[in-house]
Amino acid sequence: MKTLIVVVAICLSAMVNASPVNYEGIVDDIIKEAQEITVNTANALQTQYKVIVVEPLHQVDTAAQNIENRREEDVSCVEAKDPEVEEIVNTLHDEMIVCGSIAAQTSVEIMNDVNSATQQLVFDGYDVLKLYKKCKNYKNSVLRSSCYAKLSIKATLYIRNSRRSIKTIKEANKRVPDVFVDADACTHKSADKAIVELNVVQSEVDACIKANI
Question: What's the whole-model pTM score?
Answer without folding.
Answer: 0.63
